[in-house]
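Q: Sequence in, structure out?
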Amino acid sequence: MNAASPVSARQTRMFAPIARNFDLHIPPEEVHAFNLRVFEEDRLMVETQRPERLPLDLTLEAHIPADRSSVAYRRGLKRMGFGEFFLV
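A: Exactly. Output:
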């Protein structure tokens, strides 16, 4: 689960609780370290994207099933009354 909480026009705090019912033989510290590596890769990608304005009009981009959480986030921002673009 990912829960995004906008802090400002340029910052969003992401909450991502992690639970599992598989690979229970792997220590939690290793699972945590793996997820931190994945999130760090994502952070670097997001912070280098230009332009910074996130289009809330979903027709301006092509989306795939893996984008479901991003699409839901954008729809939520749109329902909150943000304009056509959201500054990330």
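Strands lie at 3-6, 12-15, 53-55, 85-87.
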